[in-house]
Amino acid sequence: MPDAAIGWWGVPLAVAAGAVRAGTPFLFVSLGELLTEKSGRINLGQEGTLVMGAMSGYGTAYLTGSPWLGVLVAGFVGSMFGALHAGLCTLPRVNDIAVGIALMLFGTGLAFYLGKPLIQPQAPMLPAIALGAWSHIAAVRDALRINALFIVGAALAPAIMWALRSTRWGMIVRMAGDSADAARAMGYSVNFVRFAATVTGGFLAGVGGSFLSLYYPGSWSEGLSSGQGIAAVALVIFARWSPMNCFYASLLFGGAGALGPALQSVGISSGYYLFNAAPYFLTLFIMILTSSSEHRLIGAPSELSITR
Amino acid sequence: MSHHIVVPRRTVLAGLGGTALASSLPLGIARAASDAVVGFIYVGPRDDFGYNQSHAEGAAALKKMEGVKVVEEERIPETVQVEQTMESMINLDGAGLLFPTSFGYFDPYILKEATKYPKVRFEHAGGLWTDKDPKNIGSYFGYIFEAQYINGIVAGYASKSGKLGFVAAKPIPQVLQNINAFTLGAKLVNPKATTQLIFTGDWSLPVKEAEATNSMVDQGIDVITMHVDSPKVVVQTAAQRGAMICGYHCSQAKLAPEAYLTGAEWNWTGLYPKFVSMWMKGESIPNFYRGAFKEGLIKQSPYGPKVSDEARKRADDVKAKLTAADYVIFKGPLQDNTGKTVVAAGSELIQTNATDEQLESMHFLVDGVMGSLPA
Amino acid sequence: MADNIATDLSAAGPGAVGARVPRRGARTGPVAEAVLIPLGALVVSLLLFGAFVATARVNPLDVYRYMVIGSAGSWFSFQNTLTRASPLILTALCTALPAQTGLMIIGGEGAFVIGGLAAIAAGLPVAGAPPVVVQLVMACVGMGAGAAWIAMAGALRHWRGVNETISTLLLTYIGIALLNHMVEGVMRDPASLNKPSSYALPDADMISLIPGTEVHWGLVYGIAFCVVAYILMFHTTFGFAARMVGGNPRAARLAGLPVGRIILAVTALGGAAAGLAGMVEVAAVQGRASATLAAGYGYTGILVAFIARQNPLAVIPVALLFGGIGASGGLLQRRLDLPDASVLVLQGIIFVVILASETLFGRFRIFRQRER
Known about the structure:
Order of helices and strands of chain A: HHHHEHEHHHHHHHH
Oligomer: heterotrimer
Number of helices of chain C: 14
Structural class of chain C: mainly alpha
Largest sheet of chain C: none
Low-confidence stretches of chain C: 1-20
Mean pLDDT of chain C: 85
Helix content of chain C: 55-70%
CATH architecture of chain C: Orthogonal Bundle
Number of strands of chain A: 2
Radius of gyration of chain A: 20 Å
Strand order of the largest sheet of chain A: 1-2
Shape of chain C: globular
């Protein structure tokens, strides 16, 4: 089947394809962070967790030959980092924002250190499902070539939303986040709930990291993450702590990242630095619009330290 | 017009003696003065399948030499840190010859250090040494665009759609030389060939490089080449999408054996031992050294399975002519992609040991390249 | 009465770190605590790092030895340390000063970059004037630009409730994008072909080295800024008001303090420090603005601020420590074959352990203030 070139249509299609591709790590990290924040704790260390997940996933896949095992190990490593974060935060007088920044630096440094031998070798990649095989246009085929992790993530968003809203565990998590006193009064250990939520959040962030190294761009190097972990934290705020909004926002951020190269490929090539910074502009803009000094961060769990 | 400066044997020997002196340091780190110490500084990781690896391979060739000790440091950014690294190598390791391999190290860091340590030799890849600069600096570079030209020829034959792609970091002359040479080579074979150009903005941005590659393939492009520090991501992404690749810096054939056509590689393993033995014997290394196929500074990767016999023959043919310095790539009349004539009829841009101003300050894209440059 | 409020404030939480107003005659307790616990944490970190490299079959004692040699083993090494510490002293203030008012700002890198960019943009047109004038202009413009950048985040926080940690982080990315855009576009020197950068500052206008050393005057600017900031924060009414805003914002508002203006002033001051650091990098080291201006000094500054427990005076020795760690990194790479990321790991360990040690404050009886 000869490929048809598609001229200007290439831009929205590339953006759509990029939205799915680049959006998947955002999706996982933001959902993980959402869970953590719903329980009343903010984990800024997700960037370090993401990079550790990418490195460990890649290393595992290379050593064992199975990318899916790599994903699992990445998640496990991520949950270890989440546990570290939670453990440190339970100590009295320790500030969770500071711990997050510390773990971000530590996780990144550790990942670079351990990942040195992994820069050259090639690990097996995660498979993709070619949902667009029917098309004779390369761009459409590419846009519909979706990785299974994305589908998992896309299913996870409504699942988390349902779980938070309708299950007992979800209610406990939300109570720990909205009113720690009430949760304690009902006999739940707030520290344990937050611990569990942070560990789960770390697991998801690790999985998100493994997507970067095992699928797209599919390689381990020290420039792999361009701040996706941190942007994901901003994304959760942007999405006003709603899981479905996280899903849409992840697609938005992913698409914004793909905008620069897509525009260049149809001839608009000046100012690409500013284009590349588009997601950050967007987030800041939205944050300014949706915050106000009276209703500080609508929808935020009240116990979250950044709202006080 | 070349700039050979004779470094008096005395100075070199004094320099070597000086390093022996510097090696008796406080706190008891004695270094054997019997080995000549050569220092390498990389801007990125040594095993990046790209620029830094090509230099590291050259350094590895030096390690096999008798009486030579090599010290290396990697991931040194182009800031005052490289200055400190150089000083550390000179003072604490007794290095007498340094290879700071990244372009941005030259001004002001190498210039400052060379003035401060006149007895140490600095060999810089790519810098533009002029008469006004200290004499203990040497500037060397290979006109790798000759090999990109061959890449272009092979790509021209291999491409079914006639659409080629180039993922580039920044619009600097050395990158533009490559883009233009690649396109001219392809057009030699297929006059209607086009090269889609995308700038990622920096030397190592894996996500942007993958995005660029993907959007190129979406546009129907089936052969891609690049000028970024580590071509690994572009190669893998392109191969995954079914496109073919021409490599750069060093051979990435191992990453995509079926899709790899050929590649433009540095041949520092040929050059560095030559420089070092000259230095050790006290001979003068030229301050300004450029070369291409003829001088053995660059080489072409072996052809991959998808390269047709016709393509091989044509490419080998042109390569032989280039090696004999019998072929000009940038020959007038040449128009850029806005219609302006950039090389007048009858004039040529020649790659020699001299500074061809127009070549070194290239700021145009030839006709056939789809893309634009900032003003 | 004032003393009681002060000690209440010091128990109030994170922003109050450093806000303890000591009783006269009983200073030894808290001061000893503030020095010994972090020192202990550093020792623990070094031990952990030693254990870490031991798993890579490297002798920890070698590591310690080279760290000492590389940072202070010779005059050359020590100057290396000083040069690396200079920008850190200033960028740390960008986090430490707003922290006194309870704001967690991590945008030092952005302010650094914007400060450097603005400084060169202002310095080039006046390059013909006497060097003192040029440097003064550049310093003022650099500080002003950095101040505006961070004060923006402060204003957004106070009047729109936008979280300053996230906003300054985003502003950093935006600032770096702006730097790249300008330096490769409008401000580009056409002669800077293969390394796009702005026009260069004439050598005569560059900040000179301290006589007899290889270290530039930027180090002195940094130390001076820290001392002034310390006096401002801990020995003036303004500083007291600012720390009250940090310790107990509600009480501060009830007491009628102009919280908004205080936040603006302090964030502007912090941003000015980082902006000055950027100007120094341009005027003392690089001579021009290019993409390499974003060298990570801002991020390391955050670390320094936290380990100095947000105290402007403590920033100086901590910055020296980090300068030393960075300076010895090269030796670790060359002699022990440790990857350069090991320095990052060490910094991360120190940060984590220091944070964990926060919980030890007030726990040890020997440090408790004697009851009157």
